[in-house]
Amino acid sequence: MQTYRHRVADDIVEIRIPQTDQDLREFMSWAQRASLRGPIALDTETTGLDIFTDGYRLRTVQFGDRDTAWVIHWERGGRFREAALFVLRMARRFLIHNASFDWLVLDRHAGFPLEELAPKTTDTKIKSTLIDPRQPQEGGIGNGLKPLSAWYIDPTAVDTQADLTAVFRSLGMTKETGWAGIDLQHPTYNLYAGLDCIYTARLDPFLTEGLSHFGVREALVQYEHEIARMCAIMQRAGIVLDAEYIEVLRERLREEEAKYAFVAARYGVESVNSGKQVSEALLAMGEELTELTDGGALKVDKAVLLPLADLDRDWQRIGARTPNPLADAALRAKRAGSWATTYADTFLDTVDSNGRIHAGIHTLAARTGRMSITKPALQTLPSSDWMIRRAMLADEGHVMVSTDFTAVEMRVLAGLADVKRMKQAIANGDDLHDFTAGLVYGEGFTKRHRKLCKGIGFGKVYGGGLTTIQRQTGAPVDEVRSALGAYDRVYPEIKRASVRWQREARANGMVAISATGRRLPLDRDRTYAVINYRVQSTARDVLGQAMMNMEAAGLLDVLKLPIHDEVLASVPAREAADYAREFERCMTMDLFGVRIDAAAEIGGRSWGSLYGADY
DNA sequence: GTAATCACG
DNA sequence: ACGTACGTGATTACT
Question: What is the bridge-based pairing of β-strands A392-393 and A360-362?
Answer without folding.
Answer: unpaired
